[in-house]
Amino acid sequence: MAEKVPPFQQIQFAFAAYIRDPDHNPPPRGPAPERMKVYRELFFNNIENFLATGFPVTKSILNQNDWFALVQGFYATHRSNTPFFAEIGEQFLDYLQNEREPDSGDPPFLLELAHYEWAELALVVAEGEVPDPSANLITDPLGQTIHLSEVAWPLAYRFPVHRIGPDQQPSEPPEQATCLVVYRDMSDTVKFLEISPVTYRLLQILEDEGSVAAAECLKRLATEIGYSSQGLAEHGAEILRALAERGVIGAS
């Protein structure tokens, strides 16, 4: 026989259900309606303010009703699997990607834009260190064994998410994907750098394989894209220097 839920827990469940979704759940018996409204607004506004801070561009490209509907859907239906406030952004992204039914009025880049904004937010608190500066990597990049920074994420999107805003909202993706690396630098500032598909592939190799000899990595890339090994090495040396100066890669 199922154990009966104690009366105080019944009140708690009713209270929480109403706070999450007052349009589909009756208020608990006892508290005055005006008091429940205060609780509802306090809880909801707290979540909305956090998401507005973490996803400011996403909010800016939606009208107010659509934004609040997006937040309300997350607030009412998503069951978070973390107690940490700093991880609400990841939970919101999970809701958008895996739970929410797309709306016909959604911008076609909505999920990619939200992912990009989440990445910037997540790197602020991500564990990991920026590689120590290496003089050898600047003077002789091809002679080093290189690795990707623990706080650098190569990302590829169909849309140019780093340029999207209220006045720039593409309806169709361009022919070439947008490749970025989002990273945290030595001053703990999160930045992004637009990179070529070849540089993105280079960072993918480092992300997948760890430390790799720079010269061998460039030879492998040249084979993949059907380019001269010597030509790519000359161009690649400058790319490695630029990435090292930003703290995106380090020398092992």
From TrEMBL:
It comes from the Bacteria. It holds the Pfam family NGO1945_C. Residues 149-243 form the NGO1945-like C-terminal domain. Residues 10-96 form the Putative DNA-binding domain. This is Uncharacterized protein.
